[in-house]
Amino acid sequence: MDEQDRALVRQFLEGHRDAGESLVDRYQKPLFNLALRMLGDVQDAEDVTQTVFLNAFLKLSTYDPRFKFFSWIYRMTVNESLNALKRRKPSVALEDGPDIPAAAASPDHSAEAEDRVGKALRSLGPNDRAVVVLRHFLLFSYQEIADVLEIPVQTVKSRLYTARERLRLVLREQVQEPC
Amino acid sequence: MLNQDQIELIHQEIDGANTPEQSAAFRSLVERHPEARALAVELRSVVLAFDRLGTREPPPRLKHAILAALPPPGRPRTTWRDILSDPVQTIQVVWRRSALRGGHMTKKAIIIGGTAAAAAVVILVAGLLTGFPPTFNKAGTIGGIGGVEQAARYRGRAMTEADVTLKNPEIQVLFQNDQILHLVRSDAFREVMQNAAFRNLQANASYRELMASAGYQQIQASAAYQQIQANAAYREVMASAGYQQIQASAAYQQLQSNAVFRELQAQGAFRQVQSAEVAQRLQANAAYREIQANAAYLQLQANPAFRELQANAVFQQLAATPAYQQLQANAAYQQLQANAAFRELQANAVFLRLQASDAFRTVQASGAFYQLQAAEAFRALSLNAALSQTFMREAMRDAN
Lengths: 179, 400
Prior knowledge:
The structure holds two protein chains of two kinds.
Chain A: H1 2-13, H2 17-39, H3 42-58, H4 69-87, H5 111-122, H6 126-136, H7 142-149, H8 153-176
Helix pairs in contact in A: 1-2, 2-3, 2-4, 3-4, 4-7, 5-8, 6-8, 7-8
Chain B: H1 4-14, H2 20-32, H3 34-53, H4 60-69, H5 80-85, H6 87-100, H7 107-110, H8 115-130, H9 169-175, H10 178-184, H11 187-193, H12 196-202, H13 205-212, H14 214-221, H15 223-229, H16 232-239, H17 241-248, H18 252-256, H19 259-265, H20 268-275, H21 277-283, H22 286-292, H23 295-301, H24 304-311, H25 313-319, H26 322-329, H27 331-337, H28 340-346, H29 349-356, H30 358-365, H31 367-374, H32 376-382, H33 385-399
Helix pairs in contact in B: 1-2, 1-3, 2-3, 4-14, 8-10, 8-26, 12-23, 13-22, 14-21, 15-20, 16-19, 29-33
């Protein structure tokens, strides 16, 4: 996969617009989902995804092919999402943030499940949330998460375990709370 | 009570990261330890909750919007963030690119939008430092040796630290950038900054909101938009009274009957821009519609320097930054920009040399200086016209 990415980057820099479109095809879904779970809002996730692609293409000539392209672009998405979170008005509590509308196509995408898990995710700090999203929505390994976030594997584990412990408690409380 | 190793073992099992030996140890643990079993079950239910949600398909419009904003392939561009994060590397990259083009640096490469905020702040701080422009009832003559004269045009309310957030780290970083000082001196930058219509526009809240929107930045960055901006027919339409009406009301038929507009519509770039999802979203944006109907904006659209600045990707990014918007909305800054003597000072070679001096920039960037500025006594002192003149003379002597 990484070799394909490098080839597409090279082709784009050589002037092939199709290569750019291929990179968009490969990454728009995971990047959108990463931003969506980080921010909990579809519109914000779209904005972040667009910004990341725009910045990535503008900076493509500075990309160092010795490193994995996907780590580079995922890192940009995490950072852009963190920036978007910082830009949000501090008076708006994260718990009150906009929720993700449920997709009607799948019964598993019920509004209740989205709401429940979304609230639990938003109870985490942004750095812990990034680790959880990369692990559970994008199915990254510890090492891949460490590469993206540029932190040691041990820190990834530590954050992930702490975050999951908190999620466990939050989800348990939600079950116990009367509707 | 589970120990840390046991908890880690359970988490790793949940993640499928255990070795066969560790998995065996995990199974043994949950068989004999009810607490471990309960934790494993609950953690699995957490993971299951995420698995059930899975991933979402992005809206179809997303890809169109991304592709519409895609820069032309094979044409690397320098961004404001590049300059801030690594000025040395950026200069090297720009130098290499200019060498590839035969050693000629384009005007666009020189007009880096980041200059706007930084330049203004540098000058504002210079103002605070030197007491220029003298404030209410403290009129003076910049550079004048022989005395102080009351000059009504200099009157204004005293600026406070609250007017401009000098502690903003973005602005502090900008302070340190040599490129910024270069750019302040560029003719194109000065031309735009001294344009009254531009200043009015910058003070317009709708304009600032528009500039900060992602949709506007994307469309500005698109190759098709830049191409259409360079088109004479498009500019004619943009400046036409009919276009103003269409933006403000339903005078579309009038525009449709306009031969120039029909010619424009037939162009591929125009259709591409119009059909882009992001353009449609922009059209639905109230701030966009308001600004399009703004006479000052239309007047500015006809200004080549303004169009060049607007099409500059770095400027678009800068315009979206809170620091820039804060500065542009600042009443003292607007007042300063409208001040003829201030503009004269901006063009003063000696003043520019002062700004470029290491000593001056070191002082500007120091934390102690910020603290000093916040002190009431210092501010009172800095308003003293005689002192500011003395300081100015000394500073300029040092700069020379």
